[in-house]
Amino acid sequence: MKLKTRLEQRDGQTVFVINRKEWMRGDGNSSMWSELTGSGCCLGLAALCEGVSRNAIIGKGGPVSARSAGVVFPPAYAAAWLGTVVNYLRAEAITTNDTPDLSAPERERRIKAVFRHARGWLVEFED
Q: How far apart are CA 103 and CA 18, in angstroms?
């Protein structure tokens, strides 16, 4: 299955386009990728867009557990989400992604902010 979530370049700006049908969120317990649902958390979708294989992140709770299991992330991904300086950004992305009681607009606003801060990316959502 080809992923609809993608990275685009527009006027020198990276845009992370998240397809809502592929985005696992709000269940309190998402994983980077689930074969059962055909969806992943925001950090899992970003990893896939940056070339990490689905098989590598299936069932992994987040980048730290994936790395501990031997997953090698691209340098820019690792710098943004696995460095000690950005632990709060990773935590914010995971908490925002997984918290059940956030409204859809608030969840999307927070995901946009954390990716802008961590990666400099704009984030768009599509159905």
A: 17
Tokens 């460095």 belong to which residue?
83
> From its phi and psi, is residue 84 left (phi > 0), alpha (psi between -120 and 50) or beta?
alpha
How many domains does the chain fold into? 1
- Whether the pTM exceeds 0.85: the reply is yes
In this prediction, residues 31-44 reach a mean pLDDT of: 94
Question: Is it the case that residue 43 has pLDDT exceeding 70?
Answer: yes
68 lies in some domain:
yes
- E-strand spans in 4-107? 6-10, 13-19
Residue owning tokens 């992943």: 40
55-76, pLDDT tens digit by residue?
Answer: 999 999 999 999 999 999 999 9
1 within domain boundaries: no
Domain with 102 in it: 6-126
Residue 25 CA to residue 119 CA, distance in Å, equals 20
Rounded CA gap, 26 and 38, in Å?
16
44 in any annotated domain: yes
Determine, yes or no, domain membership for 83. yes
